[in-house]
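FAQ
Q: What does a multi-component entry look like?
A: The components come first, one per line:
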Amino acid sequence: MGYFKNIGDSITTLITGMKVTMGYFVRAKEHVTLQYPDEKWPNPERNIGVGELDTYNVIRSKLHVDIDDCIGCKKCERACPVNCITIDTLKTDKGEDIGTTKLGTQKRLLVTRFTIDMTECMYCDLCTFPCPEECIYMTPDYRFERGDNKEVQVTNVERWRDRNNLIYEYSTVPKTEVDRRLQIIADAEAVKAAALEKARVAAEASATATPKPAENREITPGSGEEQAHE
Amino acid sequence: MIDAFASWMLQFGALSWLGTTPATILAMSLVAVAIFIFVALNALVLVYVERKVSAFMQVRLGPMRVGPMGTLQTVADALKLLLKEDIIPRFADPILFRVGPWIILLASFVAFAAVPFSPGWVPADMSIGLFYVVSISSVVVIGIVMSGWASNNKWSLYGAMRSAAQIVSYEIPVGLSLLAAVAVVGTLNLQEIIAAQAGVGNLFHWIPIPFPNWYIFHSPFLFLAGCIYLIAATAEVNRTPFDIPESESELVAGFMTEYSGIRWALFFLSEYANAAVVALLTAIVFLGGWQSPFADLAGARFGMISLTVLALIWTIFVKYKVKRLSIYPIGTILALTVIAWLFPAFAIWLATPGLVWIAIKGGVVIFLLMWFRWTFPRLRVDQLMYLSWKVLLPIALINLAGVAVWMWLTGAISLVG
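Then the predicted structure of the entire assembly, as tokens:
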């Protein structure tokens, strides 16, 4: 009788399976998932359990910087427990105006690099409090999508870590501008070094011959700096 | 149909210079072209429908991007296949590799020659139509073995061998289940088989519920024969619960592993043509072919009653399940019942042309095949052989004897006659 039981079991199980698929077939629209690129869930809002409801009522999902308001003080970099923020700055020239922040502070440093590695970030929110300009903050964006394919200038180690493209570059200073300023600084350094070298040679020469203080005064490091400021 | 078409063409002044024989040949070619267009469009539509059905059954949406609701997706796919490079492996047999797909397509295409689409609309009205369709469909196995062997690939060869074993095995239940219907009607002509299923009668001859005189409602044995035919025919056209010749998870694509581009498209075309032949044959032999079930007053009454029953089932099982019982289904049922018993002539218009009815019935069977395909897991090779030789074959044999007994009981045949 195992033979007939086998056939009976087959028929009943097949009918059960067909019921399941037909159940999905007749109301597929009720069961399908979100058609992601066309539709998106709204950003979830919830209390994370710290502070007041109205101020902390968002998920900390992604760190964001308003780079126009950043003065390059590096307080957030120092505050970060996991070193996921990396900031490079360059001094601006004397008298050069690169704008003010939204709080009215005159910016003095050019932020040539401001990368946040979201693979390292642990969403502790500690970097947002030291910021004097209130320009770094957590956003509720949990999707971490990137519309651009911007090449981020990072080291090889960071690139290896950044397999998911989760290092975010916030600096808007173009690379050519950074290179130009670095070149000017390097030129000034070269002039300074040349002057020092000349002075050293002159000093060695004066050790054997009579020293001439008037020549030493003509070549001063200050003249090199003035050239660099042009 | 060919002769009628030819004489119709000869009536025109521009064509009357043609002799009878050239006109007949021209008519044959035109009909063949029409059937080929039907086969191609059939594949195009069925691929889309199959993708949508599978998507809905798997809680997806399927193609949605090309055209409205993705309707142009298969057109885009077909164009892509036509533009693809035609690759022939270096160590493949160059002639057999090229010939194989054409034999498969030809076998499934020629089977349409005996299929009656409507009263009088059958390309070749032959007295052995059913036998012809069944036998020409099994020529496919030659093409499959040919392309599997010529590919010079172990997966292709495995697929071809499995396919040969499977088709040869399942020929027998197919033949025996069709033989049960043939025993009742006493002819192999498909038009006569359909003509014998006209009208409305009792369910299973004695149960006094009006049902169409289709052979699937003729007797419990023929109902069983219909089920066996559907299962065995699914296996014969290598559709999914029985698709071991091209099982993707074991053999890469079976006998089509080495094919690409247009030749692969031919396989696809023949696959869906085969499915269409099976569906049409099921509709013809067991579901009354192009016969409308609502063709006369009794049929109209049957239609109204079935609508009432469907509405009742809908009310009880669907509406109660979602706890949204409304007054409308009950009103619909009352209205339908009144219409069914007072104004049955109202539904006479449902006696639409045969082409529509055979399309509806074939479509239902094809949907059933798709339902099978996206529900059932694939059988193992030994399970496949077990099912054919140890389950379907004995049941079909006993069933055939049962049909004879049933006919004797209902007085269709007598032992002393």
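Q: Is there any commentary attached?
A: Sometimes. For this entry: Chain B has three domains: 1-83, 94-292+352-409, 303-350.
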